Amino acid sequence: ALGRPMQRALAQLHRQGQMRGLVLDLAREAALLTTLTLTRAGDHCAIHAFSSNGRHDVRYDRALDFDEPLDAAATARLAGVRSRYSTRMGVALRHASALLAAQPHRKRLLLFVTDGEPHDIDIYDRRYLVEDARRAVLEAGRRGLAVFCVTLDPAADEYVQAIFGAANYRVLDRIESLPRVLPAMVLRLTR
């Protein structure tokens, strides 16, 4: 396992209605390649996805769970992830943090892959959702989790930095680079 302690990593894909076609395909491919890379390094991974349609309708799907084999069924669940609705990041980050915090390993990474800022149908002040997501990231840190965001939104710097902190995100200028860049980036983060 590359001479390092085993890690736990959870890749969380936001699947808002705008993440369609090529972007969603690349996000799924990147999550799969990242999981394969980390699994080969001896780590345990999960791939989850979420969307929201107001505060009372947050959908959270598990394509692959920890200690589950990356087999045909898991690959089919990942292939079945579809874009839907909106992006209430704070709720999804809290749920993923609770699942990851329950994992027994010392080093745990929550990787958040998105193509846009927090948004939902019942919130009109975007600052509220940014602040809610920021608080969820702070709560994850208090649980001993590392949180890192990869965004495909070229205009993301301001809100992503506000949510994740200056050193905990990367904006990819070329969407096509996601499957190539993400596995190596995550491997560095889990060292």
Quick synopsis:
The protein has 191 residues and is α/β, with parallel strands linked by helices. It is 41% helix and 21% strand.
Explain the overall architecture.
- The structure is a single chain.
- This protein is of the alpha/beta class.
- The protein is built from 6 helices and 6 strands, in the order E-H-E-E-H-H-E-H-E-H-E-H.
- The protein has helices at 21-40, 72-79, 89-101, 126-142, 157-164, 178-189; strands at residues 7-14, 44-52, 58-64, 107-114, 146-151, 169-171.
- A 6-stranded mixed sheet has the order 3-2-1-4-5-6, sandwiched between helices.
- Helix 1 runs parallel beside helix 6 (178-189), helix 3 (89-101) runs parallel beside helix 4 (126-142) and helix 4 (126-142) runs parallel beside helix 5.
- The chain is globular, with a radius of gyration of 15 Å.
- Residues 1-6 and 15-19 have low confidence and may be disordered.
Helix and strand topology:
Blueprint: E1 7-14, H1 21-40, E2 44-52, E3 58-64, H2 72-79, H3 89-101, E4 107-114, H4 126-142, E5 146-151, H5 157-164, E6 169-171, H6 178-189
Parallel strand pairs: 1-2, 1-4, 4-5, 5-6
Antiparallel strand pairs: 2-3
Rg computed from alpha carbons, rounded to a whole number of angstroms: 15 Å
Task: Provide the helix percentage.
Answer: 40-55%
Q: Report the end-to-end length measured between terminal Cα atoms.
A: 11 Å
Order of helices and strands: EHEEHHEHEHEH
Order of strands in the sheet with the most strands? 3-2-1-4-5-6
- The structure class reads alpha/beta
Proportion in β-strands:
15-25%
How much is the average pLDDT?
80
Coarse shape: globular
Helix count from the secondary structure assignment: 6
